[in-house]
Structure formats: C-alpha cells, structure tokens
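Fold it.
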Amino acid sequence: MSETASTSTSAFPFGQEIVWEPDPEAVANSNLKAFMDAHGIDSYEDLQRRSTDDVAWFWDAVLDDLGIEFYKDYDDIVDLSDGIQFPEWCVGGEMNIVHNLLDKWQDTDVEDRVALRYEAEDGSTVSLTYGALNHRVCQCANALRSMGLGKGDRIGLFMPMTPEIVIAFLAIVKIGGVLCPLFSGYGAGAVATRLKGAGAKALFTADGFTRRGKPIHLKETADEALEQCPTVEHVIVHPHLGRDDTPMTEGRDMYWSDAMQGHSGTAETERTAAEDMVMIIYTSGTTGAPKGAVHTHCGFPIKGAQDMYHAMDLKPGETMYWMSDMGWMMGPWLVFGTLAIGATMVLYDGAPDYPAPDRLWQLVEDHEVTHLGISPTLIRALKTYGSDPVESHDLSSLRAVGSTGSPWDPESWQWCFNTVLNGKKPILNYSGGTEISGGILCGNLFKPLKPGAFSGPVPGMAADVVNPSGESVRGEVGELVIRKPWIGMTRSFWQDDQRYLDTYWRRFEDTWVHGDFAAIDEDDLWYILGRSDDTINVAGKRLGPAEVEALLNAHDAVAESAVIGVPHEVKGSEVVAFVVLRPGETADDDLRDELMQQVVAELGKPLRPREILFTDALPKTRNAKVMRRLIRDAYLGKDLGDTSSLEDPGTITAIQQAK
C-alpha cells in the first residue's frame, strides 16, 4: 500500500456490492452507442482506449457528433508544439459558440422548443423558447454594442439565477466579449478582487433576490465593490425584487428595461477565432488569491456539452436541472451544454427545502426534469426529512441523478438510489473542476455501479491513479492524474502562467495532478475520496477526511459531518470531527462515545479522533462544498481569510461554538 493511502481496515470504498446493472435497451438507444457505431467501435473499453490514444481523432469526432458549426474550418484539431501544458485547439478555425447555442436553431423545429424554464422561490415561473431567448439575447447584444462594448471586453455577471442572467451571459458571448461570472453570494471584497483582476468594463447585477422568503440586497454589495474597480464604466441593473430604494449612480447605472428599450431583436454574432477567450471564471484554492481559469469558444462549451451528451446521455428536448450558481462552473456548464445539444435548462432561484422539504422534488415533477444534478451534502440534509417529501411527487420523468461537489457516504448514496430513483436508475457521479470544464470521471449507462462509485473516466479523459512515484496503482488510494490533453482544459490562469504550471504540472513530468485522492477497485469502478491537500497525517499514517466522515454519517443519529486534521507535537496531526445531528437527536457524551467507538472499530486506535464536536451547521459554499479550511482555521482560532464563497457566514460561529 502506498504512503498516500490510509492504513484503515474500512470496507469503503472496497468490497461494496454492485447494486445497479445497465439496461441493455437504454445502452442500445444511447447517444454514446450511436457514436461508437458510427466509428465502428465494438465496446466501451475500446472507445475509452481509442479516445485517449488518439486525442486528435476523438475531439474532431466529438465536434462532428455535436454538430458544431464553424465560420471557417480549422486546419488542425490540436497543436502541441508548446507542450502538453499549452495546447492550441481548432487551429486556424473561426467560430462563436453562440452560433451553435442559438443562431443555428432558428428557422428549425428547435426554434419553438423550450430552452429555459425558470421558477422563483415564490412559485412564479417563466419559460423561453429558443426563438424567444434568441430575440432577447440579440436585444441585449445591441444594447451592449450601443455602450461601446465589444470583442475582448470583460463583463461581469453578479446576479441571481433568473432568465436575465442567461440572456446577459449569451449576449456577452454574442458580441465577442468575455464572461466574468461571479457567485451571487460574494461579499464586496470578493467581487472587487475578481472584477479588478479581470479589468472588467461593465457589470450586470440586480437589486437583490430572496432566500427563504427574506430579501437580500445585491446592488449595495456591487456598489461597494465598484469603488475599487475604476475600469467598470457601465452597470446594468435587473430590478428582480422591484425595490424603490435601489441606489443608482447617474451616468454609470441603467435599469435593465431602460438598457434594452428601443433595441432590435436581431443582431449579428461577432465572428471570433475558435481559441478566442470566452470566459474567465475564478476558482478559490485552499490558499492564495483566487485563480482565474481562462476558457475559449472551442474549449469549455464543447467539453461541457460532450459530458452531457456522451456520459449523461442528455438528448435534444430533454430537461436538465443542476443546482448551482452562475459563479460556480456548473452554472456556465448548464447554459453551454444544454443549448449546444438542443435541450432545456431549468433555473430555480431559491432554497431547495423552502417553503417545505419537498420543494426540490416538486421542481422535478412540475418541470419534468430528466436529469437532476445535486450534491451528496444536499442529499444528507434532505434525507433527514424522511421519504415522504420524495414519495409525494411523481418523479417518473427522471432518467438519472447527477452528483458532484463532495464524496458520497454509502448510506446517503443508497437512500438517494432507492428513495429517489426506486433502485432502478443510475446516479451519475461526476467529478472534475473549473479548470477541467467539466468532468474527469463520471457515471454512465454502460457499466454497473456500486454505492459512491464512478463508472470511470469520461471518454477523452486519460485519467489514472498513481502512487508518489507516479506509477499506476489499483486497489489502493492514490493521486488522480491526467496524462493527455483534452479540449476543455483551461488555457492557463489569467495573467499567471507560472501559477498554472505550479498548480498542476510540477509534480510529474507532462502529467496533470488534480489534487484529489482516488481509487480503482477490483471491478474497475472508480472513487474520489476527497482533496489530497486535505490529507491528515497521523504519526505517519495518511488519512482522507471522507473516510472518517463516511463512518460518522453511517450512524442513525448523524445528518452530516466534517473532519479536519490539526497539529500535534508528537503525531504531526490529529483528527477532529464536527457532527451535525438529525432533527430530534440529542447531543450528549453517550452519543459522542458511541461515535468515537464506531470510528476506532473501523480505523484502529492510532487514528482515534482527538475529539468529536457537535455543531448546528457546517460552513459550505452555495454549491454545497464543505469548507474544511475554514473549519480548521475557526477551530484553531486563526485568521479566516477569504470567506466570500460561504453561503451562510453564520456557520463559522456554529463551528466556533461547537461542543
């Protein structure tokens, strides 16, 4: 066993039983089977091998399979003359991705298909067809051009998940601008850092939004941020709340309706190079300033669409709802991917359990969602309400549940599989990142599944699991790496090539090290076991937090947990666990001892936690990632640094008051 692996005797992830088998009819009718047949590929294993042995053939074939249209065809699909770290894709080609999201669907049957369904927290809804969405995008593009904005200009999006954010998103791309999407829950400092770093010229924002029925003012946060951003000359404000006290700066700010007034619903799409920048999207690391991942027209959108089309089998006319915010990569991923395929996206601007615990399942039923994207953290929270909220709704439209954001524990996975999917449909576990443009690993329709497992790498992703020497390993925990380039990889960090290289490429030669612990079991199923930079080294024994969390979460009294490593003079580190209990459960020393013994029985006395603390909540991002760094710093009394990505800053207090 490698030194990166835990020495525990826990059965997770190894030794689990297969609980879902592929449906031969679904496989035969899948998008990926049609792709394989078109290229004379007999098996999924042969496809995976060919997709990574010959990346030029594969990505050329993907562009064709997705029907991506170019103004000028590319001379070569990829040029690696600057090394694997800096490939150039679609060399010499010209295309604007908006042509493939909207323009090409006009005057076809798709024009009258619903592109976007929106539901607000108060239950009001809006639907836009591909034709209606195109009309509004053109109108917005003309408004932007009238302000002097155009090709290469960076424009921020700091808005709730309403139709207007998608319209603005697509209009920016249509004029050849560069998207700078921002999490709607950011504080002023985080917004300023990103807008200033990108040199943004304009910003779309809103007066505010509601969460759990309470108004949250957004414009004031934007104004405070813009005091530090002199490059921003135009601010377009969507009056989502309908406030009459929204502060407006004369000469800079315009309401949405005023900005759009008088502009035509037809507009030319800017002709751009395939490798022209389409988006700078910032991702927060565990340390240092936010990293601006750079993406291009032929990069992020193609990878996102391919993941949906091949791995998740989203078909034209089907409906995907993935819970996210436009500031996290799954927001742009949803827009780019669904529209490239000719499918329908759902946006919901509200809490998934408000005003009642069945809200998420009501959304699935009402909007006939075929592909639902959640996180294991959300499922752990929702299952505390029991099965009644799920069973009170018709979820027969669902073909699959997608999952991303954090590792599963087996109990929560089984609950979702059996309660939401009736034990018959797959959970498409999905893991990658902002710099990937989607997934490294994903579930699919072709391979059986065990609790918490991934089917394997997405076609085209040359993923592997390696030991500290960079050698492939199976049946043990190692580092997740990628050995070949792919079309969606970030083209670098914005104005920081050195940090990009240091982050991903310095450990092993010509190999991308993603920073996740992973494992491949005896049935060739894959697992993600948490961030490798979260590793806890206890007296030379290396332990992933997810393994301890899975043991704690298996207890009937536990809703969710988070595990951190803290310094110890002799051992190097010790484990500290924070536990959130299910409603009605009592936090006492008897339960604490019971949980402690459960961990010790599985992991052994050397890995016994220093303490187990009960807390009311865990600090999470809006897309439900638990922020272990902040938990560690709060526990140790350190400066918390950037907390801008937290959904609820009050959860830090809950950690500080844990007992």
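The CA atoms of residues 196 and 229 lie 5 Å apart.
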